[in-house]
Protein backbone atom coordinates (compact mmCIF):
# COMPACT_ATOMS: atom_id res chain seq x y z
CA UNK A 1 0.00 0.00 0.00
CA UNK A 2 1.38 3.38 -0.99
CA UNK A 3 1.51 5.73 1.94
CA UNK A 4 0.51 9.38 1.76
CA UNK A 5 4.14 10.60 1.75
CA UNK A 6 5.14 8.39 -1.19
CA UNK A 7 2.08 9.40 -3.18
CA UNK A 8 2.81 13.06 -2.52
CA UNK A 9 6.36 12.64 -3.85
CA UNK A 10 5.06 10.96 -7.03
CA UNK A 11 2.54 13.71 -7.64
CA UNK A 12 5.23 16.34 -7.11
CA UNK A 13 7.54 14.56 -9.56
CA UNK A 14 4.81 14.42 -12.18
CA UNK A 15 4.05 18.09 -11.75
CA UNK A 16 7.72 19.02 -12.08
CA UNK A 17 8.17 16.89 -15.21
CA UNK A 18 5.01 18.41 -16.72
CA UNK A 19 6.34 21.92 -16.13
CA UNK A 20 9.67 20.98 -17.71
CA UNK A 21 7.96 19.50 -20.79
CA UNK A 22 5.63 22.49 -21.13
CA UNK A 23 8.48 24.98 -20.75
CA UNK A 24 10.45 23.19 -23.44
CA UNK A 25 7.63 23.68 -25.96
CA UNK A 26 7.42 27.48 -25.55
CA UNK A 27 9.71 29.81 -27.52
CA UNK A 28 11.60 32.21 -25.28
CA UNK A 29 11.76 34.73 -28.13
CA UNK A 30 8.85 34.28 -30.56
CA UNK A 31 9.34 35.38 -34.16
CA UNK A 32 8.82 39.04 -34.90
CA UNK A 33 5.54 39.83 -36.64
CA UNK A 34 6.11 42.05 -39.67
CA UNK A 35 3.52 43.06 -42.25
CA UNK A 36 4.61 44.11 -45.73
CA UNK A 37 2.15 46.21 -47.76
CA UNK A 38 2.76 45.08 -51.34
CA UNK A 39 1.52 46.18 -54.74
CA UNK A 40 -0.99 44.32 -56.95
CA UNK A 41 -0.08 40.95 -58.51
CA UNK A 42 1.68 41.26 -61.85
CA UNK A 43 4.09 44.03 -60.82
CA UNK A 44 7.44 42.32 -61.36
CA UNK A 45 9.49 45.03 -59.62
CA UNK A 46 7.57 44.76 -56.39
CA UNK A 47 7.31 40.99 -56.68
CA UNK A 48 11.12 40.89 -56.77
CA UNK A 49 11.22 42.96 -53.58
CA UNK A 50 8.53 40.78 -51.97
CA UNK A 51 10.40 37.62 -52.99
CA UNK A 52 13.67 38.79 -51.47
CA UNK A 53 11.82 39.94 -48.33
CA UNK A 54 10.27 36.49 -47.87
CA UNK A 55 13.66 34.79 -48.27
CA UNK A 56 15.30 37.17 -45.81
CA UNK A 57 12.45 36.69 -43.32
CA UNK A 58 13.08 32.93 -43.26
CA UNK A 59 16.73 33.57 -42.44
CA UNK A 60 15.96 36.20 -39.78
CA UNK A 61 13.28 34.48 -37.65
CA UNK A 62 10.72 37.01 -38.87
CA UNK A 63 7.08 36.06 -39.32
CA UNK A 64 6.35 38.03 -42.50
CA UNK A 65 2.79 38.62 -43.69
CA UNK A 66 2.31 40.18 -47.13
CA UNK A 67 -0.86 42.19 -47.81
CA UNK A 68 -1.41 43.33 -51.40
CA UNK A 69 -3.36 46.41 -52.44
CA UNK A 70 -5.95 45.81 -55.16
CA UNK A 71 -4.90 48.70 -57.43
CA UNK A 72 -2.48 51.61 -57.72
CA UNK A 73 -4.90 53.77 -55.80
CA UNK A 74 -4.27 55.71 -52.60
CA UNK A 75 -7.62 54.71 -51.09
CA UNK A 76 -6.77 51.03 -51.60
CA UNK A 77 -3.38 51.44 -49.93
CA UNK A 78 -4.82 53.37 -46.99
CA UNK A 79 -7.48 50.68 -46.45
CA UNK A 80 -4.92 47.86 -46.46
CA UNK A 81 -2.59 49.85 -44.19
CA UNK A 82 -5.36 50.51 -41.67
CA UNK A 83 -6.30 46.83 -41.69
CA UNK A 84 -2.67 45.93 -41.04
CA UNK A 85 -2.42 48.42 -38.17
CA UNK A 86 -5.49 46.80 -36.56
CA UNK A 87 -3.58 43.50 -36.28
CA UNK A 88 -0.84 45.31 -34.29
CA UNK A 89 2.26 43.77 -35.87
CA UNK A 90 5.70 44.63 -34.53
CA UNK A 91 6.58 46.43 -37.76
CA UNK A 92 5.12 47.48 -41.11
CA UNK A 93 7.12 47.68 -44.35
CA UNK A 94 5.55 49.93 -46.98
CA UNK A 95 6.27 51.84 -50.21
CA UNK A 96 3.86 54.83 -50.18
CA UNK A 97 1.92 55.58 -53.37
CA UNK A 98 1.51 59.19 -52.28
CA UNK A 99 4.01 61.29 -50.28
CA UNK A 100 1.27 62.91 -48.17
CA UNK A 101 -1.77 60.63 -48.18
CA UNK A 102 -0.45 58.01 -45.73
CA UNK A 103 0.97 60.38 -43.16
CA UNK A 104 -1.96 60.16 -40.73
CA UNK A 105 -2.23 56.37 -40.80
CA UNK A 106 1.53 55.91 -40.44
CA UNK A 107 1.63 58.33 -37.51
CA UNK A 108 -1.16 56.32 -35.87
CA UNK A 109 0.88 53.15 -36.31
CA UNK A 110 3.95 54.79 -34.82
CA UNK A 111 1.94 56.03 -31.84
CA UNK A 112 0.84 52.43 -31.22
CA UNK A 113 4.48 51.37 -31.06
CA UNK A 114 4.58 49.78 -34.52
CA UNK A 115 7.90 50.33 -36.27
CA UNK A 116 7.63 51.69 -39.82
CA UNK A 117 10.14 50.94 -42.57
CA UNK A 118 9.67 52.80 -45.85
CA UNK A 119 11.21 51.44 -49.03
CA UNK A 120 11.57 52.65 -52.63
CA UNK A 121 9.20 55.63 -52.22
CA UNK A 122 8.76 57.76 -49.14
CA UNK A 123 6.53 60.21 -47.33
CA UNK A 124 7.29 63.94 -47.23
CA UNK A 125 7.75 63.68 -43.48
CA UNK A 126 10.01 60.69 -42.84
CA UNK A 127 9.94 61.12 -39.05
CA UNK A 128 7.24 58.43 -38.88
CA UNK A 129 9.75 55.83 -40.07
CA UNK A 130 12.61 54.01 -38.40
CA UNK A 131 14.44 54.25 -41.72
CA UNK A 132 13.83 54.73 -45.44
CA UNK A 133 15.42 52.01 -47.62
CA UNK A 134 16.37 53.61 -50.93
CA UNK A 135 18.95 53.87 -53.65
CA UNK A 136 20.49 57.24 -54.46
CA UNK A 137 17.80 58.06 -57.00
CA UNK A 138 19.30 61.42 -58.00
CA UNK A 139 22.51 59.57 -58.88
CA UNK A 140 20.45 57.00 -60.80
CA UNK A 141 19.11 59.87 -62.92
CA UNK A 142 22.62 61.26 -63.36
CA UNK A 143 23.87 57.87 -64.55
CA UNK A 144 21.07 57.75 -67.13
CA UNK A 145 21.98 61.27 -68.29
CA UNK A 146 25.70 60.54 -68.52
CA UNK A 147 25.15 57.40 -70.58
CA UNK A 148 22.70 59.22 -72.85
CA UNK A 149 25.12 62.09 -73.46
CA UNK A 150 27.95 59.64 -74.13
CA UNK A 151 25.94 57.59 -76.63
CA UNK A 152 24.44 60.57 -78.45
CA UNK A 153 27.88 62.04 -79.05
CA UNK A 154 27.85 65.15 -81.21
CA UNK A 155 24.17 64.90 -82.22
CA UNK A 156 21.92 67.87 -81.54
CA UNK A 157 18.14 67.97 -81.35
CA UNK A 158 15.11 67.45 -79.17
CA UNK A 159 15.23 65.17 -76.11
CA UNK A 160 12.19 63.68 -74.37
CA UNK A 161 11.75 62.59 -70.77
CA UNK A 162 8.95 60.12 -70.05
CA UNK A 163 7.68 60.76 -66.54
CA UNK A 164 5.54 58.34 -64.56
CA UNK A 165 3.89 60.21 -61.68
CA UNK A 166 4.09 63.91 -60.77
CA UNK A 167 4.93 65.19 -57.26
CA UNK A 168 6.35 61.82 -56.20
CA UNK A 169 9.77 62.03 -54.48
CA UNK A 170 11.20 59.00 -56.32
CA UNK A 171 10.35 60.32 -59.78
CA UNK A 172 11.20 63.91 -58.87
CA UNK A 173 14.66 62.75 -57.77
CA UNK A 174 15.16 60.71 -60.94
CA UNK A 175 14.25 63.68 -63.13
CA UNK A 176 16.46 65.98 -61.07
CA UNK A 177 19.51 63.79 -61.67
CA UNK A 178 18.76 63.49 -65.38
CA UNK A 179 18.50 67.27 -65.78
CA UNK A 180 21.67 67.91 -63.76
CA UNK A 181 23.56 66.19 -66.57
CA UNK A 182 21.56 66.70 -69.75
CA UNK A 183 20.12 70.12 -68.92
CA UNK A 184 23.45 71.85 -69.48
CA UNK A 185 24.23 70.25 -72.87
CA UNK A 186 24.03 73.10 -75.43
CA UNK A 187 22.75 70.98 -78.32
CA UNK A 188 19.80 69.47 -76.42
CA UNK A 189 16.30 70.93 -76.63
CA UNK A 190 14.27 69.46 -73.79
CA UNK A 191 10.60 68.72 -74.48
CA UNK A 192 7.98 69.13 -71.73
CA UNK A 193 7.70 66.11 -69.42
CA UNK A 194 4.76 63.79 -69.97
CA UNK A 195 3.37 61.67 -67.10
CA UNK A 196 1.88 58.25 -67.83
CA UNK A 197 0.37 57.61 -64.37
CA UNK A 198 1.60 53.99 -64.65
CA UNK A 199 -0.57 53.44 -67.75
CA UNK A 200 1.27 51.91 -70.76
CA UNK A 201 -1.52 53.03 -73.12
CA UNK A 202 -1.11 56.62 -71.95
CA UNK A 203 2.66 56.45 -72.43
CA UNK A 204 2.06 55.09 -75.94
CA UNK A 205 -0.24 57.94 -76.98
CA UNK A 206 2.15 60.49 -75.50
CA UNK A 207 5.05 59.02 -77.46
CA UNK A 208 3.03 58.96 -80.67
CA UNK A 209 2.35 62.68 -80.24
CA UNK A 210 6.06 63.40 -79.69
CA UNK A 211 7.09 61.41 -82.75
CA UNK A 212 4.53 63.24 -84.90
CA UNK A 213 5.43 66.74 -83.73
CA UNK A 214 9.20 66.47 -83.30
CA UNK A 215 11.17 65.68 -86.47
CA UNK A 216 14.53 66.50 -84.81
CA UNK A 217 14.06 64.00 -81.96
CA UNK A 218 17.35 62.28 -81.05
CA UNK A 219 16.16 60.16 -78.15
CA UNK A 220 15.59 60.38 -74.44
CA UNK A 221 14.63 58.73 -71.21
CA UNK A 222 11.96 56.06 -71.69
CA UNK A 223 10.86 55.84 -68.05
CA UNK A 224 10.18 52.78 -65.91
CA UNK A 225 9.10 49.49 -67.42
CA UNK A 226 5.36 50.32 -67.46
CA UNK A 227 6.21 53.39 -69.55
CA UNK A 228 8.34 51.32 -71.88
CA UNK A 229 5.47 48.89 -72.43
CA UNK A 230 3.79 51.79 -74.20
CA UNK A 231 6.44 53.98 -75.77
CA UNK A 232 8.86 51.36 -77.17
CA UNK A 233 6.12 49.79 -79.36
CA UNK A 234 5.05 53.30 -80.46
CA UNK A 235 8.62 54.10 -81.54
CA UNK A 236 8.88 50.73 -83.25
CA UNK A 237 5.65 51.28 -85.20
CA UNK A 238 7.03 54.62 -86.38
CA UNK A 239 10.15 52.85 -87.68
CA UNK A 240 12.50 55.01 -85.60
CA UNK A 241 14.05 52.57 -83.14
CA UNK A 242 17.40 52.62 -84.95
CA UNK A 243 17.37 56.45 -85.12
CA UNK A 244 16.95 57.20 -81.42
CA UNK A 245 19.10 56.69 -78.32
CA UNK A 246 16.84 55.32 -75.57
CA UNK A 247 17.75 54.92 -71.91
CA UNK A 248 15.38 53.04 -69.59
CA UNK A 249 14.96 52.17 -65.93
CA UNK A 250 14.43 48.76 -64.23
CA UNK A 251 16.02 45.36 -64.74
CA UNK A 252 12.69 43.73 -65.58
CA UNK A 253 12.84 40.70 -67.90
CA UNK A 254 11.02 42.51 -70.70
CA UNK A 255 13.43 45.44 -70.40
CA UNK A 256 16.44 43.15 -70.43
CA UNK A 257 15.03 41.52 -73.59
CA UNK A 258 14.68 44.98 -75.15
CA UNK A 259 18.29 45.69 -74.24
CA UNK A 260 19.47 42.44 -75.81
CA UNK A 261 17.42 43.21 -78.94
CA UNK A 262 18.90 46.70 -79.28
CA UNK A 263 15.61 48.48 -78.55
CA UNK A 264 17.20 50.12 -75.51
CA UNK A 265 20.76 51.41 -75.48
CA UNK A 266 21.15 51.03 -71.72
CA UNK A 267 19.20 50.53 -68.49
CA UNK A 268 19.82 52.10 -65.12
CA UNK A 269 18.44 49.99 -62.30
CA UNK A 270 18.49 49.86 -58.53
CA UNK A 271 19.41 46.58 -56.86
CA UNK A 272 15.76 45.63 -56.42
CA UNK A 273 16.53 42.36 -54.65
CA UNK A 274 18.35 44.32 -51.93
CA UNK A 275 15.24 46.37 -51.13
CA UNK A 276 13.45 43.38 -49.61
CA UNK A 277 16.55 42.12 -47.80
CA UNK A 278 17.39 45.47 -46.21
CA UNK A 279 13.76 46.31 -45.37
CA UNK A 280 13.32 43.08 -43.38
CA UNK A 281 16.68 43.53 -41.66
CA UNK A 282 15.75 47.12 -40.76
CA UNK A 283 12.33 46.10 -39.41
CA UNK A 284 13.89 43.48 -37.13
CA UNK A 285 16.60 45.89 -35.97
CA UNK A 286 14.06 48.64 -35.23
CA UNK A 287 11.87 46.30 -33.17
CA UNK A 288 14.94 45.24 -31.19
CA UNK A 289 15.61 48.88 -30.34
CA UNK A 290 18.54 49.58 -32.65
CA UNK A 291 19.06 53.14 -33.87
CA UNK A 292 18.90 53.22 -37.67
CA UNK A 293 20.02 55.89 -40.14
CA UNK A 294 17.32 58.08 -41.66
CA UNK A 295 18.13 56.51 -45.03
CA UNK A 296 19.45 52.99 -45.64
CA UNK A 297 21.11 53.03 -49.05
CA UNK A 298 21.22 50.15 -51.52
CA UNK A 299 23.23 49.97 -54.75
CA UNK A 300 22.47 50.40 -58.44
CA UNK A 301 23.72 49.28 -61.86
CA UNK A 302 24.22 50.56 -65.38
CA UNK A 303 23.11 47.59 -67.49
CA UNK A 304 24.30 47.12 -71.06
CA UNK A 305 24.01 44.10 -73.32
CA UNK A 306 27.65 43.18 -72.71
CA UNK A 307 27.59 43.25 -68.87
CA UNK A 308 24.34 41.47 -68.00
CA UNK A 309 26.10 38.37 -66.69
CA UNK A 310 28.52 40.21 -64.39
CA UNK A 311 27.99 39.03 -60.78
CA UNK A 312 27.71 42.55 -59.36
CA UNK A 313 24.71 43.21 -61.61
CA UNK A 314 22.71 40.15 -60.49
CA UNK A 315 20.81 42.03 -57.76
CA UNK A 316 19.55 44.51 -60.39
CA UNK A 317 17.89 41.75 -62.42
CA UNK A 318 14.40 40.81 -61.26
CA UNK A 319 13.80 37.64 -59.26
CA UNK A 320 10.52 36.14 -60.46
CA UNK A 321 10.96 32.71 -58.89
CA UNK A 322 7.45 31.87 -57.67
CA UNK A 323 8.35 28.67 -55.82
Strand and helix map with partners:
Layout: H1 4-24, E1 32-38, H2 44-59, E2 62-68, H3 74-86, E3 91-94, H4 103-111, E4 115-119, E5 131-134, H5 137-152, E6 157-163, H6 169-182, E7 188-190, E8 194-195, H7 200-213, E9 217-221, H8 225-237, E10 245-249, H9 253-260, E11 266-270, H10 272-287, E12 295-297, E13 300-303
Parallel strand pairs: 1-2, 1-3, 3-4, 4-5, 5-12, 6-7, 6-8, 6-9, 9-10, 10-11
Antiparallel strand pairs: 11-13
Helix pairs in contact: 2-10, 3-4, 5-6, 7-8
From the structure above, extract its key features.
single chain; 323 residues; alpha/beta; Rossmann fold; 2 domains; seven-stranded mixed beta sheet; six-stranded parallel beta sheet; 10 helices; elongated; disordered N terminus
Give a short summary of the structure.
The protein is of the alpha/beta class. The chain has 10 helices and 13 strands.
Report on the architecture of this protein.
Helices cover 43% and strands 19% of the residues. It has 323 residues and is α/β, with parallel strands linked by helices. The strands form two sheets. Strands 6, 7, 8, 9, 10, 11 and 13 form a seven-stranded mixed β-sheet that branches. The protein has two domains: 32-135 and 271-298, Response regulator (Rossmann fold, 3-Layer(aba) Sandwich); 137-270, Rossmann fold (3-Layer(aba) Sandwich). The longest helix has 21 residues, at 4-24.
